[in-house]
Every structure is written in structure tokens, then in C-alpha cells.
């Protein structure tokens, strides 16, 4: 759903420390950044040439099982508590240990998981029939009571679930049969069931939740779920180890490895060197500027899979100069987004004018796809038109504050490119760099955004429906960071949420996308694939953004 650095950010970590203002004088400076080494990058940009790439949906099946393998993670998880697992580092681990009522597959389809089936008897109710013969990692059987306890945590203010927005229309969660749970909504909500393939639908043992209390999901409490791997240990600051669960219920996803270890490597250079040497077997979200080095190492393959993420510049203050639509449009028209794409991610991806990728329009009608991606405003770079808009708005000399962090090459490139674009049309930008932790606070703490006009996010979706993106931009939503409000947009989105038929819903969602494209509550930059490195010892990876919720590690075995 976000994010952050995702949020629902592609993000890597989040935080900050002010280092002062940085201004650059032209886009030519940005083009040179591909060969530079900003904090968090590998310094291996080479000549900045584009990288040849293609989508890989599935790698070769393993020839056999493997004792163990290691994956490098750019950050240590904040928590393995599903209520707080809201970003890459958390969910890439949790997806292999805990399971949801439904399963979000690598092709973004939803299929039964811990719920062997579901029903929708009235517009306000969803009924889940719980699978029999499933056990938690401590050997106890899965029951409907466990499902009720797990789902109910999202409604508990004391828990403060990051996934509360999924449950905001829920009025009751009850066991209505020996193996049945019924969720009652205050009104029709198509998005609730679509979210049951992610962290919002995870089921944990009710007894474990009660026993662990505040320690649940942390390095000492751990988790006790139903997935193909069980939680074995968490060495704070070092690693998390998972062990194959031999009594796993789904034979098709029985783990091919006896153990998997996630090694925390916050330094991008160290992470790339570990992959190049073969000391770790793989890693998600590899630094794109390092792809040529990794390919040349002969230690594995850099792969690219379908993604739901879009890189955006968030407008976080609509009380200032950016409250004028003409200024927002001018800034977007002034940006050399093709140059950003090249300098930030070596040309891997494409410029976009909307906030969603086509991967989350899989059940849309043809008319909806046309409306969503063709019948929109295209903001091709045009400095002359941008300057005219600034003059009409009387915004010459207006000052903006852009917050960034030393997270990766893309963060450095985008911050300076935005400043260059603003300066080229008579605006002034103060770039303030903060720590990754402080940066993350921008997505969760309104006070952290005070005085901030702009910041970057790579925002991914956690369900297979584009409507998720637009539901978070309604008036008053937590992730509507600038407080944007458009009554027509709200009405369209609410109608779409109440529409069960996917084709009809997609046409309403397309209208919402058109409104957002015209009003620009955020400034869309580009989309790109998900990157992963698969080392020479292993195979079976399914490169897809669904790795955040799908038990991807279970499919990896010996090459």
C-alpha cells in the first residue's frame, strides 16, 4: 500500500539529518550523476549508458533441494508483526513464514490460501471458509478463532495497525461456523477482500498473540504462523534465520531449502560486493547502477520482474506555492524525466503521467485501460509553457523545500533534478537531507512534514487493483500527505469501492486516474521493474512485486 520510501515507497529504508541546502544550476549536472557515488550508491555507474533489460516471469525450476541459501536485505525489518509489516524489509521475510486468507501470486492473481473458499452473500458481508488440516509451526491446528483474533487486531487502537485503512469499514468480525468467519462492513467494500492476499489478511495463532503480547514479532518474541518456513532466530543488527516447516500443508509450495538466512546489509557497496563474490546467494531490489558489475562477476543473474511501483514526487504542502495547480503543472513540465530515468536507474523503466502500472489493471475493461492510460494529459517537457504558467500564477521567486535522504542513487538524482527544473522556471528550492529514519517519518508523522513542500516516493500497491492507489488520495486519508481534496474525485472513488464487478469498477477507477492526472496531487515520474539478483548456486526465483506477500523462498533450490 504505500508507501514510504513505498509506501506504500520503492524504498528502501527511511530517516534524516539536515546537512544544509543544495542547489544545482542545470539538468546537465543531473546527467553526470549516473557516474557519481552518492551516499547509499555503489559508485559503479560506469558511463551511464542504458542497460538492456527484459521481464523474467519465472526462472528455471531447481534440479533438487538445497541445504540453505542466503539473501541480502538492504535493511533490518522494523517488525515481523503482520500489523506493522508495511515495507520491503519486513514483508520479504514475513511472506515466507506467515500466510494470509488469500494468496497474491506472482502474476498478481488472487487464489485461496488459509481460506479454502470465500462467499459474498450480501454487499456488506464477506464469508471465509477456513482450510482444514493446517497447523501452526508449534503443531497446533488452525481454527476459525485464530482467524477472528488475527483480523480483530487491526481494529484495536492499542495495536495501531498499519493496515487499519483496509478495515476502516468493518463493523464486525465473528466466527459463524466451526470453520467459518464472517466479516460485516458498514457498506459495500470491494477492496476489503482484494486486500486479504497481503499482510492485512495474515493469520497468527491466537494463543501465540496472547502469550507474546508486546514481544510478538520482535527479535525475542518471533512469530508462529503456518507458512513453508518457520521463524528460527533473529540476531539484532545481523540476520534472521528461517527453517523449513516439514508439516506444511501445501505440497506445491513445500520449501526446497532446509534453511534461508536474511543478512542485513545497509551499505549498498557492501551488499553489491557480497553478491559479486558469491558470499550471499541473492537479494531483492539491487542497486540498478551496479547491474553491469553484477552481470560481469559471473556469480549469477540480475533479473527484472513486473512491479506495481511508481516513482512520484509527493506534494506535501498545498497551503504554499504548490497549492496553485498552475505551479504544480509548471514544475512537472519543466522536469527532464527522461534524463532522470537515465541518471537515476540507467534507463530501466519508462516515464509515466499516472500513478499506477498496467499490472494492477488485469481485470479492467478495454475501455477502462484506454481511458486510464491514453485519454489523459501527457506532460512532455516544455519549458516555455512552464514559464508561462509560473507567470500567470505570479509565482516567480517562490521558495520550496525539498527533503531527501542518503538512501540511493535515485534519491540523489531526483532531488537535484527537481531543484534544477524549479530553478529553470524561476522557483527556488532548498534541498534538505535527513537520515533514512527521519525520512521514513515523513510517511507516518504529520509533524515531520511541517515546512516540507516536496519529497520522493516509489509507491507500490499491495492488492491487484489500481483502485487501492486512489483510495489513499481521498479527502482526509492518512496517506494523502498534502491534504488534497477534490469532491468529484472522492465521489468517483467511493462509487468504485462499492462496485463488485471488476470491469465496471475499473471504468470508475479510470475516471479517478484521469482526475488525479489533471489535478496532480503528486507529480508522477517513472515506472520500472522490480530487480533481483539470483546467485549461481540457486534457481527458482519468480521476480515479481508479489514477493512481498508470496512465499517466494520456498521455490528456491539447487541450480
List keywords for this structure.
21% strand; disordered N terminus; single chain; alpha+beta; 559 residues; 6-stranded mixed β-sheet; D-Maltodextrin-Binding Protein, domain 2; Dipeptide-binding Protein, domain 3
Q: CATH H-level name of the largest domain... which superfamily?
A: Periplasmic binding protein-like II
The strand order across the widest sheet is: 10-11-12-1-13-21-14
- Cα distance, first to last residue? 34 Å
What is the fold-level CATH name, i.e. the topology of the largest domain? D-Maltodextrin-Binding Protein, domain 2
The helix content is: 25-40%
User: What's the total count of β strands?
Assistant: 23
Main sheet attributes: strand count, strand direction, barrel closure: 7 strands, mixed
Tally the helices: what do you get?
17
Number of separate structural domains: 2
Q: What Rg, in angstroms, do the CA atoms define?
A: 23 Å
Output mean pLDDT: 90
- Kindly provide the name of the CATH class of the largest domain: Alpha Beta
Low-confidence stretches: 1-46
* Structural shape: globular
What fraction of the residues are assigned to beta strands by DSSP? 15-25%
Structural class: alpha+beta
CATH architect. name of the largest domain = 3-Layer(aba) Sandwich
Amino acid at each position: 500500500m504505500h508507501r514510504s520510501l513505498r509506501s506504500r515507497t520503492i524504498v528502501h529504508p527511511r530517516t534524516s539529518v539536515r546537512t544544509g541546502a543544495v542547489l544545482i544550476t542545470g539538468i546537465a549536472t543531473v546527467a553526470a550523476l549516473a557516474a557519481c557515488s552518492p551516499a547509499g550508491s555503489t559508485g559503479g555507474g560506469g558511463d551511464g549508458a542504458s542497460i538492456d533489460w527484459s521481464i523474467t516471469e519465472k526462472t528455471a525450476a531447481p534440479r533438487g533441494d538445497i541445504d540453505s541459501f542466503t539473501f541480502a536485505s538492504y535493511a533490518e525489518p522494523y517488525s515481523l508483526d503482520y500489523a506493522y509489516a508495511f515495507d520491503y524489509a519486513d514483508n520479504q521475510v514475513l511472506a515466507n513464514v506467515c500466510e494470509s486468507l488469500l494468496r497474491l501470486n506472482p502474476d498478481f492473481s488472487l487464489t485461496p490460501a488459509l481460506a479454502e473458499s470465500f462467499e459474498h452473500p450480501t454487499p456488506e458481508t464477506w464469508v471465509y471458509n477456513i482450510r482444514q488440516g493446517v497447523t501452526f509451526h508449534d503443531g497446533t491446528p488452525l481454527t476459525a478463532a485464530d482467524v477472528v483474533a488475527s483480523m480483530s487486531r487491526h481494529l484495536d487502537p492499542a495495536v495501531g495497525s498499519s493496515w487499519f485503512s483496509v478495515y476502516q469499514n468493518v463493523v464486525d468480525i465473528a466466527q459463524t461456523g466451526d470453520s467459518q468467519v464472517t466479516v460485516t462492513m458498514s457498506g459495500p467494500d470491494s477492496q476489503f477482500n482484494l486486500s486479504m492476499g497481503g499482510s492485512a489478511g495474515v493469520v497468527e495463532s491466537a494463543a501465540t498473540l496472547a502469550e507474546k503480547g508486546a514481544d510478538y514479532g520482535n527479535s525475542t518474541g518471533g512469530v508462529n504462523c503456518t507458512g513453508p518456513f518457520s521463524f528460527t532466530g533473529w540476531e539484532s543488527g545481523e540476520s534472521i534465520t528461517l527453517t523449513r516447516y516439514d508439516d506444511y500443508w501445501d505440497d506445491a509450495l513445500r520449501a526446497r531449502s532446509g534453511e534461508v538466512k536474511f543478512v542485513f546489509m545497509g551499505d549498498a557497496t557492501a551488499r553489491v560486493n557480497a553478491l559479486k563474490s558469491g558470499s550471499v546467494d541473492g537479494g531483492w531490489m539491487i542497486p540498478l547502477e551496479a547491474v553491469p558489475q553484477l552481470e560481469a562477476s559471473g556469480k549469477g543473474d540480475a533479473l527484472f520482474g513486473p512491479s506495481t511501483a511508481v516513482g512520484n514526487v509527493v506534494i506535501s504542502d498545498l497551503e504554499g506555492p504548490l497549492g496553485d495547480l498552475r505551479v504544480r503543472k509548471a514544475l512537472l513540465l519543466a522536469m527532464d524525466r527522461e534524463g532522470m530515468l537515465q541518471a537515476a536507474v540507467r534507463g530501466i523503466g519508462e516515464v509515466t503521467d499516472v500513478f499506477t502500472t498496467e499490472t494492477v489493471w488485469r481485470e479492467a475493461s478495454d475501455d477502462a485501460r484506454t481511458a486510464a492510460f491514453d485519454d489523459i494529459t501527457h506532460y512532455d517537457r516544455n519549458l516555455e509553457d512552464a514559464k508561462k504558467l509560473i507567470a500567470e500564477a505570479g509565482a516567480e521567486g517562490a521558495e520550496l523545500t525539498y527533503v531527501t535522504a542518503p538512501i540511493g542513487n535515485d534519491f540523489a538524482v531526483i532531488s537535484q533534478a527537481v531543484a534544477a527544473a524549479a530553478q529553470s522556471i524561476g522557483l527556488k528550492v532548498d534541498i534538505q537531507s535527513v537520515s533514512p529514519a527521519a525520512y521514513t517519518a515523513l510517511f507516518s508523522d504529520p509533524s515531520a512534514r511541517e515546512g516540507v513542500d516536496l519529497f520522493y516516493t516509489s509507491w507500490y500497491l499491495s492488492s491487484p487493483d489500481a483502485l487501492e492507489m486512489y483510495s489513499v488520495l481521498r479527502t482526509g486519508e492518512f496517506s494523502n500527505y498534502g491534504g488534497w481534496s477534490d469532491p468529484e474525485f472522492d465521489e468517483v472513488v467511493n462509487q468504485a469501492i462499492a462496485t463488485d464487478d471488476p470491469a465496471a469498477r475499473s471504468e470508475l477507477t479510470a475516471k479517478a486516474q484521469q482526475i488525479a492526472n489533471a489535478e496532480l496531487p503528486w507529480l508522477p515520474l517513472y515506472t520500472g521493474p522490480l530487480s533481483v539478483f539470483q546467485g549461481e548456486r540457486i534457481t527458482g526465483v519468480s521476480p515479481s512485486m508479489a514477493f512481498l506477500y508470496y512465499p517466494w523462498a520456498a521455490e528456491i533450490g539447487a541450480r
